[in-house]
Specification:
Elements: E1 3-15, H1 17-30, E2 32-33, E3 42-50, H2 55-61, E4 66-74, E5 81-90, E6 93-102, H3 103-110, H4 123-135, E7 138-152, E8 157-168, E9 181-182, E10 189-195, H5 201-210, E11 213-214, H6 219-228
Antiparallel strand pairs: 1-6, 1-10, 1-11, 2-7, 3-4, 3-7, 4-5, 5-6, 7-8, 8-9, 8-10
Length: 229
């Protein structure tokens, strides 16, 4: 079973629809779209798990320097495989580890059964089991959005534009008919900029020219705020 570990810097910004369209045009002239975006934006769904006292959500709201997220992620509703991801962040430095689950295993987690994680190889499954058992994590938000991604081999830059962000308070990971609510009425675009040691100056200049607003919270926190209203 495949396992991945990635550490890099990550910055998040909020864009209006016109700003996002302008930035996408500029990035298209400078960078390559990743293979998933070759034919347009692609779908992402994440099911987030939090503690009984919403530790992850509250840590972000109070601005804790160290914070984490635990989620299941898929890219198509009939996908036979789902990623289990643990994401830790200190300041702007993000560390993510993930492993692949079967559809049945992902459903088991969504329904509160984590025992099978003990039988899986790798550190991700062991850490996730500890989180589920020790912290009694449960599903708190289902988040969908459409992503366009650009990449550069220099500093392993990856820039993504996430649009049509919507959320539901459900654990129905593979459900096609979940009633979803648009974050900021679906009009906000979240820009994520990821890189290893540095962001090349010409790309920093492009981003600055568009004038994005730096975000203090991410899509999970936006979704939780929406669903609490």
């Amino acid at each position: 079973m495949a396992e991945w570990k990635v550490q890099r810097h990550e910055e998040k910004y909020r864009l209006s629809a016109p700003q996002a369209a302008e930035l996408e045009l500029m990035l298209s002239a400078l960078l390559q779209k990743d293979r998933y975006s070759a034919n347009g934006a692609y779908f992402i769904r994440s099911l987030y798990f939090d503690t009984a006292d919403d530790a992850d959500y509250n840590d972000k709201l109070i601005g804790a320097d160290r914070r984490q997220k635990l989620r299941l992620r898929l890219y198509h509703l009939d996908s036979p495989a789902v990623k289990l991801e643990i994401k830790n962040k200190t300041g702007s430095l993000s560390y993510k580890q993930s492993t692949t689950l079967t559809r049945a295993q992902a459903l088991a987690l969504a329904n509160g059964d984590c025992e099978f994680l003990l039988d899986l190889p790798g550190d991700t499954a062991r850490r996730a089991y500890t989180f589920f058992r020790r912290e009694q994590r449960r599903p708190t938000a289902l988040v969908d959005y459409d992503r366009t991604a650009f990449t550069s081999p220099v500093a392993q830059v990856r820039i993504t534009l996430d649009r049509n962000i919507r959320a539901a308070k459900t654990s129905d990971l593979f459900g096609a008919g979940c009633p979803m609510f648009g974050v900021h009425s679906g009009g906000v675009c979240v820009l994520e900029v990821k890189f290893d040691a540095f962001l090349p100056g010409y790309l920093r200049g492009v981003l600055t020219s568009v004038g994005p607003a730096k975000m203090s919270i991410g899509k999970y926190e936006l979704a939780r705020h929406l669903l609490a209203g």
